[in-house]
Amino acid sequence: MINPQTFIFLKELVENNNRDWFQLNKERYDEARENVIDFTAAVISRLQKIDPTISPDLEAKKCVMRIYRDIRFSKNKLPYKNNFGVSFPTQGSKLGGVEYYLHIQPGQSFIAGGYWMPEAEHLKAIRQEIDYNADDLKKIIDDKEFIELFGEFRKQDQLKTTPKGYDADNENIDLIKLKSFIAWHPLKDKELTSASAADEIARVCSKLYPMNVFLKNALA
């Protein structure tokens, strides 16, 4: 589970997002990161029972993203993220692509799955798979339990125009026009600090798994 002190650290970081404060509290950060790594390992062990494409060699430490922001090309010059991001790849140990993603942030945590902003060739392949086998995807995303957990899959960022090669009257154009193919479920702080937190995340991911299978098949 996530230690309540991890949330306290992140809350205080928001109010003191500067290098001097961070260095003074480096030991607290290290403890929070270790807590997230340990929790990540617990989640991985459960995900491996759900999704056989989660590598048995996947290291929890490598799944936890850096808290340091790249501010070189950003107007936001705050040096640190206000969250811990955890990527669970389904392609060996390579982060990105079709994956599960855990976001740990006070009051704004969530678990997600799918493919966020696919590269051009992958986007083309996924759109083609939807065009050919849309019923397979719709059976997953229109399931009552899926909607209760993740909301309406189609209500994601879409292109304003119709993608090249497709007709505007295509019956699945609302899915074909999507820029990302993700579903996410909010997590309360008390859920993550519960002893059953890893089990709950695994339960939600079991409902994301069929969608990830569809997306991976599109890229095969």
Please tell me about this protein's structure.
With 220 residues, the chain is an alpha+beta fold. β2 (99-104) and β3 (109-115) form a beta hairpin. The longest helix has 25 residues, at 26-50. It has helices spanning 4-15, 19-24, 26-50, 60-63, 120-141, 144-150, 173-176, 189-192, 197-219; strands at residues 84-89, 99-104, 109-115, 181-187. The chain is globular. The model has no long low-confidence stretch (mean pLDDT 95). Helices cover 49% and strands 12% of the residues. α3 packs across α9 (197-219). It has a single domain (4-219), classed as BirA Bifunctional Protein, domain 2 (2-Layer Sandwich). A four-stranded antiparallel β-sheet has the order 1-2-3-4.
Q: How would you sum up this structure in a few lines?
A:
By secondary structure, the chain is of the alpha+beta class. The chain has 9 helices and 4 strands.
Question: Secondary-structure blueprint of this entry?
Answer:
Layout: H1 4-15, H2 19-24, H3 26-50, H4 60-63, E1 84-89, E2 99-104, E3 109-115, H5 120-141, H6 144-150, H7 173-176, E4 181-187, H8 189-192, H9 197-219
